[in-house]
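OP here, attaching both records as promised.
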Amino acid sequence: MSSSRLLDTKGGAGGIAPEFLVSPDMLDAVSPSGDRGGMVLGSGLQGEPLTISALRPAPTRIVLVGGLYLARQVALRAMAVGAWVVVATGRPAAWQVLQKAAGTGPDGRPAPLVQIRRLSPVELPRPSEDGPLLVVHDGGPTPQELFPPRSPWQTTVYVLPYMHPQAGATANAADLVLLQRLPVGQAQLAARVWRLPPPMVQQLTTLADDQVVALGKNLWRPLRLVTTQKEQQILGPVRRGD
């Protein structure tokens, strides 16, 4: 594989992005994009902004292993770039902040940009380049494929509160994995799922509350979450837990 630009570092020295050995598919999954799907995920260790193309012209799966804070922040940033957001969850009250952030329509009802659903199949909005769709599946550590991404501009985010032995299939099917700090036992399980060497396993157990590792094929990128003032008003301070 050839060395390719992977994560944008807008505002970095000379505007030069770091180089990684990546496959073309993974480059498309997480590289910066000129389209509306490009979202700032956090910052590098030198403070440079890092962007992912979470909404793209291909069906996309993202697995998030960690707390509710990160999942809601990803959803908020998808809304900010014009995406429809559908949340399927067993804890709807925890996601009401998204509807509050979306505001209300002319009739005074919650804006249709955000829909909070039960964990059962429903008809989804039809995604397009002008209206990409982010489906958040918040169904515990062993999610069912209720809303698999089947069309361009649809991204499904699977929120796993912790690593579970039966989540291997979901984890391995992901185009991108975002990992927050894991206890030793769960980090060892992650090592078996993704064949991680001991130094990476150790790093997963020592991440700070505001740190995340972006994981993919030939990708291991630690980054730091950054919360805007408006996001802080909605979500509170950056944290590892819910």
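Record two, same layout:
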Amino acid sequence: MCDNGRLDNERLENGSPIRAALKGALAISPLTLAVVPWGILAGSFAIDAGLTPLQSQAMSALVFAGAAQLVALGMIKAGIGLASILITTLLITSRHLLYGMAMRPQVSPLPLKWRLTLGFLLTDELFAIANLGKQRSLDPWFAFGGGFSFYLGWNLATAMGITLGHKIENLDALGLDFAIAATFIAIVVPAVKRPSILVCVLVAMVASVVCALMELQAGLLIASLTGMACGQLYAKLSGEPWRQA
């Protein structure tokens, strides 16, 4: 009850829930626009993989994980078995466990309905705007506004791909998949504010390339853990003070 009362007081200080949600939607809007080509490609690719329009849209509505969807669709098209698809998508989305651990101090005081809602809406993009660190509290309406607007943007882009994808010849040759890299660059670059974070990013980048060349399915997880370990090691060896950006 005390936690809920504290959260209510914080929301009153920060403005109405609608205003907080709009701020969240505005904060994530550049990333929402950047992901539109990615969503169009995912919708078109789902139809190309043999899914019906309803199944294709349901995949975006229920799975809501761009990278995992594209990889899973490629495996479906290649006729790979369900077990391999599940294991691969689990490895790809395992980074969300790290996001959840990082945001736990902010999210744990929230009621269960908020934790479940924000857990479903949690993406790389939402983490980028909502992870405020231990020194600041999380406004759930701000996070909801950002996450839900991004969810709508992704599903609308997917619907565009489903509807228009077959009408555009050689859609996969237009370079829309670059939106994936562009989105993650937009997320990562603003976060590089300390030398240890730069070390983490560079090591993870090199490790991901090496894992891709070696065709390791767990490459994303390996690169992430290696980058974080090296960044943490650098911070300890260099005596870099921990501080909030």
